[in-house]
Amino acid sequence: MALTDLNTWNKSELSELYKKLDAKYTEVKGRNLSLDMSRGKPSAEQLDLSMGLLDILNSDSPIHVEESIDARNYGSVDGLIETKKLFGQILDVNQHEIIVGGNSSLTIMHDAVSRSLLLGTVDSTTPWGKLPKVKFLCPSPGYDRHFAICELLGIEMVTVDMLEDGPDMDTVEELVKNDEAIKGIWCVPKYSNPEGITYSDEVVDRLAKMETKANDFRIFWDDAYTVHHLTDEPDVLKNILTACKDANHPNRVFIFASTSKVTFPGSGISVLASSEENINFIKKQIATQTIGPDKLNQLRHVHFLKDLETIKQHMKKHAEIIKPKFDMVLEVLEKQLGKQNIASWNEPNGGYFISLNTLDGCATEVVKLASEAGVKLTPAGATFPYGKDPSDRNIRIAPTFPTLNELQTAIEVLCLCIQLVSTNKLLQNQ
Ligand code: PMP
């Protein structure tokens, strides 16, 4: 296939190419493929890495832990001390700054927003839901399920661009300084979903220090991929809680994390980390919601994951499985599209996604054509608030779940669809 910049081709060259690509696409459609790259799920091989979790507790295991808590019984609404210590190591916070939640960090994010709307935060004079309008800043492309929480709960989303080292902070600072209705910002600060970006120290500091019109403004810091490195030289993220304390805004941040992509998604444990004042405030509210979390699941995670070093080793095994998949995607993209100047993509050091930008106005059509050829991708626009990508160009690639062979086929089909749609677009522009 053509290996030069398609933007320099004349009409007859483009027409000729389009015919060839279209014929190839018809042939691919006839193969009746059925491949799914729509969500960032671990593969079965990755899940196998954690099978030891199922055997690690048995009827002979000690079930009394620190403070003589019987893990089988009610109690410990904010989690076992052992679990808090483990997450304390991962997130570099102390054990009093943590509440251990249930099986999903998305649930605790949803609940944190809901509680703020119903009851306010420790710094609120009015519950957010009693105000005429509540807005959240949404650095985009971002995580569609964050945006879904806002949409469900009636929070207006304000799109902010993602730059190479995090959200466009000039815009963020300007907006939060002047608008009291802006109560929050969504952040995936490390190996972001979908762009794989890690926020720079400067961005972390500016978020912690910035002047906000709302004095109960909160950063929703979803550190979902904090230990999910793909290389031996991992990105390093500055500690936001410390930065907020140093900036005299100790209550500004809610940090979320989980073991979903460390052990088993749906059967892991999640945490909220924040200032002690926030934690104590929220702990009381949670105590009306549950008499205690699943401490046996916490216990088996503590026995299985042990400490930060063991987690690092465990995550290396994940990386050994998924790095070749990321490499494969990048290799095919480079080979098929590298010189054509019709798409660009990131090369992340960790996380679960590769973010690809087509020419403006092409992503929806590419995703549609890929789907009709049997390759399911995350819907175009999903990485933006209200599902609307203003440039209609971003496509999220989730390489972890398919096998290497499936992945190669899926990415080749994706590249073909990008070439086809781009050629058509360039022809229309002639
Ligand atoms: N946050 C981000 C950024 C994610 O990508 C995901 C999973 N796709 C989650 C949260 C969901 O985490 P959990 O399973 O803990 O609810």
UniProtKB/TrEMBL annotation:
One of its GO terms (molecular function) is transaminase activity. The keyword Transferase applies. Keywords: Aminotransferase, Transferase. It comes from Aquibacillus rhizosphaerae. Pfam families: Asp_aminotransf (PF12897). SUPFAM superfamilies: PLP-dependent transferases. It comes from the Bacteria. Transmembrane segments: none annotated. Coiled coil: none annotated. This is Aminotransferase class I/II-fold pyridoxal phosphate-dependent enzyme. InterPro entries: AspAT_Ic, PyrdxlP-dep_Trfase, PyrdxlP-dep_Trfase_major, PyrdxlP-dep_Trfase_small.
